[in-house]
């Protein structure tokens, strides 16, 4: 099981704060984000600019997502 949590513009674009889902063995961060974009094409422009944390650490698109992980999807932030 994978826990997905969406923040700010990602939450608004997807219309929910999060969800749980399953992932195939060997699925990468890019696979998960691609699946999200395919399921909500209107959110794809936002998701393409988001950073992703895998269990609290910045993830690369080719990082494998293990079962039981948490992915946080964070749009770019501005401020100071």
Describe the structure.
The protein has 80 residues and is an alpha+beta fold. It has 3 helices and 5 strands. It has a 5-stranded mixed beta sheet. A hairpin with a 2-residue loop joins strand 3 and strand 4. The longest helix has 11 residues. The protein is globular, with a radius of gyration of 12 Å. The N and C termini lie far apart (36 Å).
Structure described in brief:
It contains three helices and five strands. The protein is of the alpha+beta class and 80 residues long.
The total strand number stands at 5
Outline type: globular
For the CA atoms, what is the radius of gyration?
12 Å
Biggest pleated sheet? 5 strands, mixed
Pick out the low-confidence regions.
none
With strands numbered from the N-terminus, the spatial order across the biggest sheet is: 2-1-5-3-4
Helix content: 25-40%
Number of helices: 3
What is the typical, i.e. mean, pLDDT? Answer: 95
> Per DSSP, what share of the residues sits in E-state strands of 2 or more residues?
25-35%
Could you tell me how far the N terminus lies from the C terminus, measured between alpha carbons in angstroms? Answer: 36 Å
Order of helices and strands: EHEHHEEE
- The assigned structural class equals alpha+beta
């Amino acid at each position: 099981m994978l826990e997905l949590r969406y923040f700010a513009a990602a939450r608004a674009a997807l219309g929910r704060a999060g969800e749980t889902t399953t992932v195939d063995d060997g699925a990468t961060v890019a696979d998960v984000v691609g699946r999200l974009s395919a399921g909500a094409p209107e959110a794809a422009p936002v998701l393409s600019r988001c950073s992703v944390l895998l269990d609290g650490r910045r993830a690369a698109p080719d990082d494998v997502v293990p079962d039981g992980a948490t992915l946080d999807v964070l749009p770019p932030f501005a401020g100071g």
